[in-house]
Each structure stands twice: as structure tokens, then as C-alpha cells.
Automatic annotation (TrEMBL):
<dbReference type="GO" id="GO:0051959">
    <property type="term" value="F:dynein light intermediate chain binding"/>
</dbReference>
<keyword id="KW-0493">Microtubule</keyword>
<keyword id="KW-0243">Dynein</keyword>
<dbReference type="GO" id="GO:0005874">
    <property type="term" value="C:microtubule"/>
</dbReference>
<feature type="region of interest" description="Disordered">
    <location>
        <begin position="744"/>
        <end position="765"/>
    </location>
</feature>
<dbReference type="Pfam" id="PF08393">
    <property type="entry name" value="DHC_N2"/>
</dbReference>
<keyword id="KW-0966">Cell projection</keyword>
<protein>
    <submittedName>
        <fullName>Dynein heavy chain 12, axonemal isoform X15</fullName>
    </submittedName>
</protein>
<feature type="region of interest" description="Disordered">
    <location>
        <begin position="65"/>
        <end position="84"/>
    </location>
</feature>
<dbReference type="GO" id="GO:0045505">
    <property type="term" value="F:dynein intermediate chain binding"/>
</dbReference>
<keyword id="KW-0067">ATP-binding</keyword>
<dbReference type="InterPro" id="IPR042222">
    <property type="entry name" value="Dynein_2_N"/>
</dbReference>
<keyword id="KW-0963">Cytoplasm</keyword>
<feature type="domain" description="Dynein heavy chain linker">
    <location>
        <begin position="676"/>
        <end position="1018"/>
    </location>
</feature>
<feature type="coiled-coil region">
    <location>
        <begin position="635"/>
        <end position="662"/>
    </location>
</feature>
<keyword id="KW-0505">Motor protein</keyword>
<comment type="similarity">
    <text>Belongs to the dynein heavy chain family.</text>
</comment>
């Protein structure tokens, strides 16, 4: 071995020596000097234990043998066979029979009930109903069970024994296995037994003296030792889970260190002696050390197991004197009631301690690993069996849950009584309460419930003791109490806000009264309203406010006990209480203000009445001036003057209304102004007359100097008549008025009896009546011009007519843009009017015919074909063309009638072209409908491939028609209006060509069908064609 390796091994051993305590060598003077000492040294307790164990094993084996033999059926005594029957073959047979009976008498595992249930599930329920069926099923189950037992016994015999090849042995139900599957008792085995026993003795290391010393050392060390000292845990009182885990973890670590510092060095010291391996062959050395490792592992596992069992016993429900007491709290956090630590945390701590015990002593090196000093140590297998850990966890889980049940019920009591505070119920209850209209007393009663609940929670005990738990409820109590008080404060803030708002309203109403009472009125109406307002405020308003202040004072007395007002609320409360003493001086100041305003407004009203009287007098004098207006050329100025006077009269009326209103407010007698009403009545005729004359002047100028061709004789005649009637009415009105005024003056003169005053024999000429007469004369003169306008301004007059008129007078009369009625009248055309009238009448009739023709053409602008898709062909077809055909017939007749008129000559070509087009459209539609009817009949027929093959010529012709038809309908679908759809070039000829082809197709189809009928009376083809032709009724679309 190289020096580096030696150095590494030496360093490793040195490190191991540092980990383990030094091995104490026995002193050399110890020897077997005395018999007593020799006997003491030769004594081994393991020998005594081994003897005891062997004796117990032998006694147990005897008891089991007696029990087994007692269950077996006693075999019949062997018959006394003659010597001739004791051959070797017979001995083998009898020996086989005996052994077979022994094997068959062994207990057999019965068939599993699960298998039987599965078999029964395969049987229909109808076969299992009824008493007889149940008995049959039970008998079949018994039979299956017996067959299973027989099969198992036969299999057991075959797997244990080999049947000898003897013919007279009974058949066992099946062929004999080709190779032995059990023990062949026909061959000798005693020598093998001896060989095996010697081999076991050579390899059984447990009886080696060193092993007995190892056992004795383990018994001495671990007999009364456990890893954890669990006594007195309950005596420590309530303890935290973490504290218990830390304390027991420290104990386990210290106990582990103690074992590694005491027991393990002794074990190593034991195997460093020379006599430790005495009698062990080199090739058996690994097996020997394996035995040592197994023995050490079992000792350590037993220690861990006893520790786990001791820990589990702490939680024994039958003995709670050793049960630890854990500290637990009921906490309130984030509106949740919870345990701290939680039940799961507590359970995890208890389970963790079991796992901590199981983790102890897991790094103990094997003896050969420590002695060899290898770099990779090999540890003993000291892991507890899984079933032990599972047993401990199950027992602890049940015990922990049982001991936590009391704490859980106490928690559920809190949940049952107070969970409504935190689960949203209380919030909804408060929101519902706040949404409703409640009085202050109802609020205080509801708030009192929450305060009482808070007091009730605080009186609950802080600690509750259970066998395994001391439950601290202080945090939960505090949280629930604060929650209840929070809800109470929410309601308090709500009613405090309402109280604040009510106080603000009271103060604002007092402020409004103050502001209104001290405001100087601008008008009399405002002054009267202020007087009424203050009077009402003194009597009713202040009393209501005082009662509201008393209610506010009662609320304040409640709030002082349960609510802390901020400074601004305290100031507001003080202001509310002081207002009744502050309002009276304001009312006194208002009285003085009203008295001054009343005196001032009365003076203003008197001044306004006097001013109005002067204004009415001025308007009367202005009104008298209208009777002197006599110049028609100044009519525009007259109209303006009348409008200005009417505006002043309107303003005076508004002033009267204002004065009367003020007088009514002051409760004075209302002043009447009859002169103003008289002015309104008298000015109305002048206003109408002046406006009418002005309108006539403007209209006459427009007619005389406007565009001549824009004139309309009929409308002009109507307007002139209207002007004449209105002027006549006005003339009569003023004449009557003049007579009444004259009569009144004469009566007044007679009453005064003034002899010296001479009555006027004739009244002065009235300028207004004169103007009326003048306008009447103007209208009468203008009426003579109307025939000329009616003849020459006929809308039917065309250039040819003006040419004829020009030929009559001998010069060109054709009007242009500068032609006016005044110019025409200057031409003095009266001698020619009779001839002009004849030409104008002809022009009117020609115009009527032309207008009728254009009306007929315009009718077709909005008329369109009704089209619809035909099935799933994608082709459109015409429908509902009756109205179009009726319109065509009507217009063709009208057109022909118009052509017979003598006045149609100027546009005879147009009416002829329109007639031809209508006739062509009519023919086109007729051909169109014929093609459509045939196509609808033939399309389902020629869709069949059989028909196309049997009638190829007709099929090609139909394809041509179908192509044309689709093109026509596609064009029609783009613009279905009749004029546009029939404007396709060559449409009529194309449709006629299609009809000719369709007639040929129909002849060929009829001939084909007739031929088939003669040869095949019940021809399948005819049936198919007939069926196809019935698929669509073409008459509906024709």
C-alpha cells in the first residue's frame, strides 16, 4: 500500500477516534486467579436466556402438534395383510394413500364471498326473484363451494405429493403432471436432512459467544432506557406546542449523544479484541458482521419502538393523568374566528414528535465500517417499521381529535351565537335598517342591542380548561366586542349625521328667515310677499322651528352619554339653541323696513297713473290725424305710423295692467281707462285699410312691370276679385262710421239748444273715403286687362302659337325676358283678342294632350316586375303581372284615342312612338309568360339524365332555351322596372325564338311519350315524366 493511502486511512481513523470516546482497555492484572472470579467471568446471562427461549419454543411446538393431531381424523387401523401382499409396490401405494389422507385433512381456505357475489351479478335479476329461485341459487352456491374445496384439495395433493405409477390407485380426476411438483416421499431424504443441519450449525452465528456478549451489553444499556423522559409533562402546566417540540427534540438529541458516547464505544471495544472473531472462518466474516449489524439494529429499533409507545401512551384516553396541556387561543383576525395554533398545527406537532423519534439513531455506523475506516460509512438499518409508525399516528390522531372535541364545541358556541356579527348578516341588517325610515327612538333601541351584546361578550370567561387544552378567549372576546361597538358606532354616526343635518336645516331656515326679512323689496309685489312671509314666519314657522329645537335638545341629551361631538358640532348645537332669542330683533327691523318701502311705492304708483293719462291723450290726438291722410303715394309711411301707434297703445295697455296690479296689492280701487280701449277699436280699421292698399299697390306693380310669361290669368282674376271685395267692405265701414258721427253731433247740438249755432247741411268730404273710392276705380280699370293676360299667358302657348299671333298683327309678338304687361297694353291689341282667343284655346287643348302623354310616361317610372326565386335553381321568375297588363291595355286605348284628336298633330310622332313601345312591351310580356310557363313545365323533366339520353335533340334545344331564359331573367333581376327590363335589345325576338323551340320540344316530348305508351302501357319513363311535370304548377306564374 502506498504512503498516501496509509496517511489517508490514518487520518480517517483519527477522525473516528475524535467522534467516539476512547475505549477503556481492561487492566492487565485482571485474571482468573480465584475460582469465584473464574466462575463469575465464565457466567453469561445470554446462555440462561437462550435456554429459556429454547424451552419455550419446544413447549409451543408440542402444543401446536397436539392441536393439529387432534383435528385430524383418526386413520383406520392397517389391516393384517398376508405376506404375499406386502410387496414393495403395495408399500409405496399404501404409503401414498396415507400421506394423501394427511394432506387432504389440512384446512382449506374457502372460496371468497367476493367471487360468489361477482358470479351472482352475472345472473339476471328476473332469474333470482321468488322463493324457489332463491333456494335454487343457494343450492348452486353450495355446489360451487364444494367443487372449489375439492379442486383445492386435489391441487394441494398434487403440489405436495407425487402419485406413484401404480395402476390400481384410484383416478384423481385429471392427467398426472409430467414432472414432480411436490415432495417425492418415495425417495430417501434422511441424508439430505443431516447435511442441511450441519450446514445450518456452521453458518448460524447467533450462538457465537461474542454475539451473546453483544446481546448482554444491549440488554444492560437499553433495558430501562428510552429516548424521551415523558414524566412530569402535565405537571409543567400549559405549554406551547413549539416549546414542547423543542424540549423533546433537545431530549432526543441528548439521549442520542449519550448512547453514542456510552453504548457504541463499548460495542466497538468488544469487537477490537482478538477472541471476538474466534472460530470464524475468513470466508464467513462478512456473514458474521451482517449478523452483528442485524442484532444491533434490532436493539436500537426496540429502543425507538418503546419510546414511540411511551409517547403514544401519554395520550391514552383511559389515563389522562400524564396528558400534556397545550396553550391555545381563540383569535379574531380579518373578521374570522380561528384557533391559534390550529388543530392541524397541533396535530402536526404531535405527529412531528413521532417522526423526530423515528429519525433518531439513524446514523450509527456498522462495526466493520467503523473498523475499516472507509471514507463512505455504512450505517445500521435502524428505521422503524412502517406499521409501527402508522399505528402510532392512527392512535395519536384519534386521541388528539377526541381531546380537542371540547375546544371545538366551545368554538362552535361562539360561532353559533356571534357569527352573524362577521358573516355579513349584521351588515345587511344595518343596511336594511338604514334604508328604511325609522325614528330616533327606534335607532337608539337598535343601537342599544349592539351595546348590550358587547357587554355580554366581555363578561364571558377569559380561560376555558379542557383535559388537553387551556383555551384563551381574550382576543376573540375583544374582537367581537369591538365589532359590536363598531356596528353601534356606525348607527350612531348615521343618526349623528342626521342630527347634524337637521340642526343645519334649522339654522339655514332661521338664516333664510333673517335674509328674507331684511331684504329691501324692489317692487310692490315683492313687498307684499315679504309682509305675508314675515307674518307667516312669526305665527307658524317659528313655532315649528321651536318644536324642532326641543326635539334636537332631546337628541343632544342622548348623544352626550354615548357619542363624542367634534368641536364644529358643539358650535352648531349651541347656535341652534340660541336662535329663538336672536330672531325677535330681526322681526322688529323688518317692520321698520316695510313701512318705509310702502310709503315709497305709493308715491311711485301715483306718478305712474298721471304719466299714463298724459300718454293716452297724446295717442288720441295722433289717432285723429289718421282721418286726414289722403295721399295714396305715402301709403308706406301711413302703414309705419299705424304700427308705431299700435306699439304705443300696447305699451300703454301693459302700463295699465301694472298699475291695476299695484292698486290691487295696495287694496285701492282699480283705475279704468276707457279712452285706451276706444283707441284700440278705432285704429284697427285704419290698420287694415292701409295694409290692404299697400298690398294692392305692390301687387299691381308686380303684375304690370314683372315678367309677362310668369303671369297667370286665373290666379290674377281671383286676387283682383278679393281686393275688390275687401276695398268695398272698407268703404262701407268708413261711410257708416261717418254717418254715425254726424248723427251724434246733431243730437249733441240739439241737446245744447244753441239757436245761434247753425247745423251743417252737408258733411265735409272724408279723405279716407276718397282714398277708398280711388282704389276701387284703379281695381275696376285693372279688371279690363285680365282677358288679355288670360289669352296671352296661357301655359300651352308655344313658339308656333306666337308665330301665328305675330302673323295676325303683322309684327313679332313673341315675348322675351323684358316683356311686361304694361308694354303689351301699350301695343293696343284689343281688336285682335277674338282671333287670339281661338289660337289660345287650341294651345290649351294641345297642352292638355301633351300633359296627359307625359303623365302616362311618368307612370311607368315606379312600376316594376315582381320576381321571385324558383326553388333551388338560382333562377328568378315573374309573378303577379296582371296589374301591369291591365295598365298596358288602358294606356294603349288612351294613346289610340289621343291620336284621333285634331290637336295631336304637333307631337304626333311622339305619341306614335309611345304607342309602338307600349304594344311591343305588351307583346314581349305575352311571349315572356309563354316561355316561362313552358320552362317551368319542362325544367323538372329535363333535369333527369335518363330523359336527356333518350331525347338528345330535344335536350339540346331545351339547353338553348334554358340559357336564353337565364340570361333574360338575370338582366331583369338587375333592374326589375318594366321600361328598363323590356329595353334589352332583341328581347322580343329572342323570346319568340324560344317559344318556337319550345313548341318543337313539346311535339318531340309528346311523340316520345306516345311511343312509350304504345310499347309499354305502364312505362316507367312516362310515370317519371308525369311525376316530374307535376312537381310545379306553372299556371300560378303565368
Amino acid at each position: 500500500m502506498s504512503d498516501p493511502n496509509k496517511a489517508a486511512i490514518a487520518a480517517e481513523k483519527e477522525a473516528l477516534n475524535l467522534k467516539l470516546p476512547p475505549i477503556v482497555r481492561p487492566p492487565e492484572d485482571i485474571g482468573v486467579d480465584t475460582p469465584a472470579q473464574s466462575k463469575l467471568l465464565s457466567y453469561r446471562r445470554s446462555k440462561e436466556q437462550q435456554k429459556t427461549i429454547n424451552q419455550l419454543v419446544i413447549e409451543g411446538a408440542k402444543r401446536n402438534l397436539d392441536r393439529t393431531l387432534g383435528k385430524r381424523t383418526p386413520s383406520s387401523p392397517e389391516p393384517d395383510y398376508p405376506p404375499t401382499m406386502t410387496s414393495e409396490i403395495k408399500k409405496k401405494a399404501f404409503n401414498y394413500i396415507y400421506l394423501k389422507q394427511c394432506v387432504e385433512s389440512s384446512p382449506i381456505v374457502p372460496i371468497q364471498q367476493e367471487w360468489l357475489d361477482h358470479m351472482l351479478m352475472l345472473v339476471p335479476e328476473s332469474l333470482k326473484e321468488g322463493k324457489e329461485q332463491e333456494e335454487l341459487v343457494q343450492s348452486l352456491i353450495n355446489e360451487v363451494s364444494r367443487d372449489f374445496e375439492k379442486s383445492m384439495k386435489r391441487y394441494l395433493v398434487r403440489s405436495v405429493l407425487v402419485r406413484p405409477d401404480i395402476n390400481w390407485l384410484e383416478d384423481e380426476g385429471g392427467p398426472i403432471p409430467e414432472s414432480p411438483v411436490g415432495l417425492d416421499y418415495s425417495k430417501p431424504w434422511h441424508s439430505n436432512y443431516l447435511q442441511t443441519r450441519n450446514q445450518i450449525l456452521a453458518n448460524l452465528h447467533i450462538v457465537h459467544p461474542t454475539m451473546k456478549m453483544l446481546l448482554d451489553l444491549g440488554y444492560t444499556t437499553f433495558a430501562n432506557t428510552v429516548l424521551l423522559d415523558l414524566t412530569g409533562i402535565r405537571g409543567k402546566g400549559p405549554i406551547d406546542c413549539e416549546s414542547l417540540r423543542n424540549d423533546l427534540s433537545i431530549q432526543a438529541r441528548k439521549a442520542e449523544e449519550k448512547i453514542m458516547n456510552t453504548w457504541y464505544p463499548k460495542v466497538i471495544n468488544l469487537f477490537t479484541k482478538k477472541e471476538a472473531l474466534e472460530g470464524i472462518k475468513p470466508e464467513k466474516l462478512d456473514a458474521f458482521y451482517n449478523c452483528v449489524s442485524t442484532l444491533m439494529s434490532n436493539q436500537l429499533k426496540d429502543l425507538l419502538k418503546r419510546t414511540v409507545e411511551g409517547f403514544v401512551k401519554l395520550f391514552d384516553p383511559e389515563d389522562q393523568r400524564r396528558l400534556p396541556i397545550f396553550k391555545m387561543e381563540l383569535t379574531f383576525d380579518d373578521d374570522k374566528m380561528e384557533f391559534y395554533p390550529t388543530f392541524q398545527d397541533l396535530e402536526d406537532v404531535v405527529f412531528g414528535l413521532v417522526e423526530r423519534i423515528a429519525e433518531a439513531l439513524q446514523n450509527v455506523q456498522t462495526v466493520p465500517s467503523w473498523l475499516s475506516g472507509t471514507s463512505t460509512p455504512v450505517n445500521l438499518d435502524t428505521e422503524l417499521p412502517e406499521h409501527v409508525l402508522q399505528w402510532a399516528l392512527d392512535k395519536l390522531k384519534v386521541a388528539v381529535h377526541r381531546n380537542l372535541e371540547g375546544a371545538r364545541k366551545h368554538y362552535e358556541t361562539y360561532v353559533e351565537k356571534y357569527s352573524w356579527l362577521i358573516d355579513g348578516t349584521a351588515v345587511k341588517l344595518i343596511e336594511t335598517f338604514q334604508a328604511e325610515d325609522h325614528t330616533f327612538d327606534e335607532y337608539t333601541k337598535f343601537i342599544g342591542k349592539f351595546f348590550n351584546l358587547a357587554s355580554e361578550i366581555m363578561l364571558l370567561p377569559q380561560w376555558v380548561h379542557f383535559p388537553m387544552v387551556r383555551l384563551d378567549c381574550e382576543d376573540l372576546k375583544t374582537g367581537l366586542t369591538n365589532k359590536a361597538r363598531t356596528f353601534a358606532n356606525m348607527l350612531l354616526n348615521d343618526i349623528a349625521s342626521k342630527h347634524r343635518k337637521e340642526n343645519e336645516n334649522i339654522c339655514s331656515e332661521f338664516e333664510a328667515v333673517k335674509e328674507h326679512a331684511l331684504k329691501v323689496p324692489e317692487t310692490t309685489e315683492e313687498m307684499m310677499e315679504l309682509i305675508s312671509y314675515v307674518e307667516k314666519a312669526r305665527t307658524v314657522g317659528i313655532q315649528e322651528l321651536v318644536s324642532r329645537i326641543k326635539e334636537s335638545k332631546r337628541r343632544m341629551s342622548y348623544f352626550l352619554d354615548v357619542f363624542l361631538f367634534p368641536p364644529e358640532d358643539l358650535a352648531l348645537n349651541s347656535a341652534v339653541l340660541m336662535w329663538p332669542w336672536k330672531i325677535n330683533p330681526i322681526f322688529d327691523e323688518n317692520d321698520e323696513l316695510i313701512e318705509n318701502a310702502k310709503h315709497r311705492k305709493e308715491n311711485e304708483l301715483i306718478a305712474k297713473r298721471e304719466k299714463l293719462i298724459l300718454e293716452v291723450e297724446k295717442e288720441s290726438r295722433r289717432m285723429e290725424e289718421f282721418a286726414e291722410f289722403a295721399e295714396l303715394d305715402r301709403m308706406q309711411q301711413y302703414v309705419t305710423d299705424v304700427r308705431q301707434l299700435q306699439k304705443r297703445i300696447q305699451e300703454s295697455e301693459e302700463a295699465v295692467q301694472f298699475i291695476n296690479k299695484e292698486e290691487e296689492l295696495f287694496k285701492w280701487e282699480l283705475t279704468k281707462y276707457p279712452e285706451l280701449d276706444k283707441l284700440k277699436v278705432n285704429i284697427e280699421p285704419y290698420q287694415k285699410f292701409f295694409n290692404l292698399v299697400l298690398k294692392w299697390q305692390r301687387t299691381e306693380k308686380r303684375w304690370m312691370d314683372g315678367g309677362f310669361l310668369d303671369l297667370n290669368g286665373e290666379a290674377m282674376e281671383t286676387d283682383v276679385e278679393e281686393f275688390s271685395r275687401e276695398i268695398f267692405k272698407t268703404l262701407k265701414f268708413f261711410q257708416t262710421k261717418q254717418k254715425k258721427e254726424l248723427q251724434e253731433k246733431r243730437k249733441a247740438a240739439k241737446r245744447r239748444s244753441l239757436e245761434e249755432e247753425k247745423l251743417e247741411e252737408e258733411p265735409k268730404e272724408n279723405p279716407t273715403i276718397t282714398m277708398c273710392t280711388t282704389v276701387m276705380e284703379q281695381i275696376k280699370v285693372f279688371k279690363d286687362y285680365i282677358p288679355t293676360v288670360s289669352i296671352l299667358c296661357n301655359p300651352g302657348m308655344r313658339a308656333r302659337h306666337w308665330k301665328q299671333l305675330s302673323e295676325i298683327v303683322g309684327y313679332d309678338l313673341t315675348p322675351d325676358s323684358g316683356t311686361t304687361l304694361r308694354k303689351i297694353l301699350k301695343l293696343n291689341l284689343a281688336p285682335y283678342l277674338d282671333k287670339f282667343e281661338v289660337i289660345s284655346a287650341g294651345a290649351s287643348k294641345e297642352f292638355s294632350l301633351e300633359k296627359a302623354m307625359h303623365t302616362m310616361m311618368g307612370t311607368w317610372d315606379d312600376i316594376a316586375f315582381h320576381i321571385s326565386l324558383y326553388r333551388d335553381t338560382g333562377v328568378c321568375i315573374l309573378s303577379s303581372v296582371d296589374e301591369i297588363q291591365a295598365l298596358l291595355d288602358d294606356q294603349i286605348i288612351k294613346t289610340q284615342t289621343m291620336r284621333g284628336s285634331p290637336f295631336i298633330k304637333p307631337f304626333e310622332k311622339e305619341i306614335k312612338a309611345w304607342e309602338d313601345r307600349l304594344i311591343r312591351i305588351q307583346e314581349t310580356i305575352d311571349e315572356w309568360l309563354k316561355v316561362q310557363a313552358h320552362w317551368l313545365y319542362l325544367e323538372p323533366i329535363f333535369c333527369s339524365e335518363d330523359i336527356m339520353q333518350q331525347m338528345p335533340e330535344e335536350g339540346r334545344q331545351f339547353q338553348t332555351v334554358d340559357r336564353h331564359w337565364r340570361d333574360i331573367m338575370k338582366f331583369c333581376a338587375k333592374d326589375p322596372k318594366v321600361l328598363a327590363a323590356t329595353s334589352l335589345t332583341g328581347l322580343l325576338e329572342k323570346l319568340q325564338n324560344c317559344n318556337e323551340l319550345l313548341e318543337k320540344i313539346m311535339k318531340g316530348l309528346n311523340a316520345y311519350l306516345e311511343k312509350k305508351r304504345l310499347f309499354f302501357p305502364r312505362s316507367r319513363c312516362r310515370g317519371k315524366v308525369a311525376h316530374s311535370s307535376r312537381r310545379f304548377d306553372a299556371s300560378k306564374y303565368s
